[in-house]
């Protein structure tokens, strides 16, 4: 019975590794893509899977019409959209917000470290004072025994 379980164990481990390294990340990417496609709206600048850049002028559940230039409009399947191009000003704003958050985090970490250091110092002081008290008591007992 144990030999059978040991024979199956490597297969189970391989499946677990494949799940965490391949299946799970792929599912996550797929969910993000479905969400991105559902958030498409008129006026968004997009890139198709073929590399074509354009602005959405019309869309429905299945198809998207892109305006490539003033005279050209192309119709694609909604699934042919690869990514949404973001407005450079908005991208810069997001980068600035992320930098601010990163700058705030180290100060928070420093504050936490400072409070931890203070707590450790208090514990050390308490331990030292209790050790001193024990030493004084022992010294008192020794002097009392000698007398």
Automatic annotation (TrEMBL):
It is a single-pass membrane protein. InterPro entries: Preprotein_translocase_YajC. The keyword Lyase does not apply. One of its GO terms (biological process) is protein transport. This is Preprotein translocase, YajC subunit. Residues 87-147 are annotated as: Disordered. The chain crosses the membrane at residues 6-23. Residues 87-126, 133-147 have a biased composition (Basic and acidic residues). PANTHER family: SEC TRANSLOCON ACCESSORY COMPLEX SUBUNIT YAJC. The keyword Transport applies.
């Amino acid at each position: 019975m144990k030999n059978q379980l040991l024979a199956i164990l490597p297969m189970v481990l391989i499946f677990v590794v494949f799940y965490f390294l391949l299946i799970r990340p792929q599912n996550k990417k797929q969910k993000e893509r479905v969400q991105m496609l559902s958030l498409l709206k008129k006026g968004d600048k997009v890139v198709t899977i073929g590399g074509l850049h354009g602005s959405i002028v019309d869309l429905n559940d299945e198809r998207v019409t892109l305006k490539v230039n003033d005279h050209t409009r192309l119709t694609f399947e909604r699934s042919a959209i690869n990514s949404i191009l973001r407005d450079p000003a908005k991208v810069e704003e997001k980068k600035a917000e992320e930098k601010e958050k990163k700058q705030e985090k180290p100060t928070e970490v420093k504050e936490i470290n400072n409070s931890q250091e203070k707590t450790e110092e208090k514990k050390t002081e308490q331990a030292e004072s209790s050790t001193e008290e024990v030493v004084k008591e022992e010294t008192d007992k020794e002097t009392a025994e000698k007398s």
